[in-house]
Amino acid sequence: xxxxxxxxxxxxxxxxxxxxxxxxxxxxxxxxxxxxxxxxxxxxxxxxxxxxxxxxxxxxxxxxxxxxxxxxxxxxxxxxxxxxxxxxxxxxxxxxxxxxxxxxxxxxxxxxxxxxxxxxxxxxxxxxxxxxxxxxxxxxxxxxxxxxxxxxxxxxxxxxxxxxxxxxxxxxxxxxxxxxxxxxxxxxxxxxxxxxxxxxxxxxxxxxxxxxxxxxxxxxxxxxxxxxxxxx
Length: 232
Prior knowledge:
By secondary structure, the chain is mainly α. 56% of the residues lie in helices and 10% in strands. A hairpin with a 2-residue loop joins β2 and β3 (204-211). α6 (84-93) packs across α8. The termini are far apart.
């Protein structure tokens, strides 16, 4: 295998023992549709593992550094820092998109800038570091390239409170009831699903959100709903 990953290894200060494992991080399943005899599988298993490792790393970090927060706060902070946009941004900052192996169609469709693919790639890299090196190395990688000053800033400025949480707080405070979310439309192939979700209260639609995951679409719908609270 060529040393095309050397610049990345220098950037993250990790030299992989298993270079195939590092290459596996960047193999999108669409690439295998055009290269059926390729020696490695897609990065989906690594991404699944990395997602779990990232969740544990975040929990340990918050437990160690913010002992006075409540359990509910931990959950909100975790959601704020490990959301797709944050992971995609960290992935782009490291230039992981340069290494992504996609089908020609995905490349033409802008796959190398696709937030979901970038986020998945970042999680796959966490999984690979965990397997090839150690939990400690994966922990340091996440602290250096995802948390940095960002997580502390989020906590100190209460930015972890999601739009959904804020909306629920307001409506529950006024009416002792909670808003509901409905999927209004779902389209696109499985790996590029787009969801349109509405948030409702008293049978009235307060906001709409469209995104590539239900969670993000609900957040956008909640954000949109703040503009219409006066009409309740």
